[in-house]
Automatic annotation (TrEMBL):
Keywords: Metal-binding, Oxidoreductase, Zinc. The keyword Zinc applies. Gene3D superfamilies: Medium-chain alcohol dehydrogenases, catalytic domain, NAD(P)-binding Rossmann-like Domain. It comes from Elysia crispata (lettuce slug). This is Enoyl reductase (ER) domain-containing protein. Residues 33-356 form the Enoyl reductase (ER) domain. GO terms for molecular function: metal ion binding; oxidoreductase activity. Coiled coil: none annotated. InterPro entries: ADH-like_C (IPR013149), ADH-like_N (IPR013154), ER (IPR020843), GroES-like_sf (IPR011032), NAD(P)-bd_dom_sf (IPR036291), Zn_alcohol_dh (IPR050129).
């Protein structure tokens, strides 16, 4: 079995992110934050897995910095990789793969499934089901392609789900207000995708973004939302509700809640208009109390945000290739800086989308497409 090509700093970063004990030299004991109980030689190379007989082995070159929405509020994170947002090249094709459309070196991205969402960092990802592997057009950079199967696809699915309800309300209302809760990557993608999917002639549709971080809200404002609403969790609840209603004059018709806590749900119900729709996309367990009789009397609906499917991912990829969708601002960082970057994200010092790059390349850079 061959060994991975990452350098020692990159390997050390991957081990830290997965919680693996780091094997270190005695000279670095004091500066290390994660270590094994004994001191040994420097980090050794990770083994490269074999390609599944009916699948492919993907060598990861770029990965989105995935974490659960709301973790920045708690100043903690749980990395999610690979599976959520990865892109790279075909390293090996399985021996029994029939009618293989893949060759070594092809640029690809991987659609996540339930088994791959919470696995640890790795340089190589074996994929059994090649229907989840999409080839990347030459016009789409690998760092952009890496973002599409995760937050971009979820936002695309959410906006798709909201669009019919928005169109119905547009026929009977002078103004339709949409509120996106969460100003991180999901919120930024939602702003850009709503503009693309609802067209430029939707002058009577206003999109607002709410978040507890001023920095993220300013970034969302730069991306073209109608207005931003500061949900400072230290403020009195009624004050936050009144501030929201004051900003969204006429109340809120559609809410996409990417945080999905009891507090955000109760707040949503207080600002939601009659015949309003709430799309819930939180990724952590939450219990809340809802009056079904009130919900029915107001003809309101609560729907879960779908993860998105492979057909929607293909549609999204085609729209990105054709430059029909503006890509939210993002920064590319070397993977050995991953732990520091997550700390920066949690402190809201990085509000753009963060993408990790594998391999010995230049330092991080910002891409702002809006």
């Amino acid at each position: 079995m061959t060994k991975a090509a990452l350098n020692q700093n990159e390997l050390r970063a991957l081990r830290k992110l997965t919680g693996e004990p780091e094997v270190i030299s005695s000279s670095s004991i004091q500066s290390s934050t994660i270590m094994s109980s004994s001191t040994c030689e420097a980090v050794s190379s990770m083994p490269v897995p074999d390609a599944p007989d009916n699948g492919v082995l993907v060598k990861i070159t770029h990965a989105g910095a995935c974490y659960l929405e709301g973790q920045t509020r708690n100043r903690r994170y749980t990395p999610q990789f690979p599976g959520n947002e990865v892109a790279g090249t075909i390293h090996e094709v399985g021996n029994n793969l029939p009618n293989a459309n893949f060759t070594v070196g092809d640029r690809v991205m991987v659609m996540p499934d339930e088994d791959s969402i919470n696995t640890g960092y790795a340089e190589y990802v074996p994929v059994d089901d090649v229907s989840r592997v999409l080839q990347i057009p030459n016009k789409v950079p690998l760092e952009v392609a890496a973002m599409l199967p995760g937050d971009a696809l979820k936002a695309y699915a959410a906006v798709n789900c909201a669009a019919p309800h928005v169109e119905k309300l547009r026929k009977v209302k002078s103004t339709v207000n949409i509120l996106v809760i969460g100003g991180s990557s999901l919120g930024l993608w939602s702003v850009k995708l709503a503009k693309y999917m609802m067209g430029r002639n939707c002058n009577n549709v206003r999109l607002f973004v709410a978040d507890n971080s001023i920095d993220r809200l300013l970034t969302a404002q730069d991306h073209g939302c109608h207005d931003i609403i500061h949900w400072n969790e230290e403020d009195h609840e009624q004050y936050i509700v009144e501030r929201t209603l004051d900003s969204c004059r006429g109340g809120v018709d559609v809410i996409i809640d990417y945080v999905g806590t009891n507090r955000t749900m109760q707040r949503c119900l207080k600002v939601l208009n009659r015949e309003g729709l709430i799309l819930v996309g939180g990724n952590k367990p939450c219990e809340t109390s809802i009056s079904l009789s009130t919900l029915a009397a107001k003809q309101q609906s609560i729907v879960g945000v779908p993860r998105g499917n492979i057909n929607q991912l293909i549609e999204l990829l085609n729209a990105v290739e054709g430059k029909q969708v503006e890509i939210p601002a993002y920064k590319v960082f070397p993977v050995e800086d991953a732990n520091h970057i997550f700390e920066e994200i949690c402190e809201c010092r990085i509000t753009e989308r963060a993408v990790f790059r594998f391999g010995s390349q230049s330092s991080g850079h910002l891409v702002d497409n809006h």
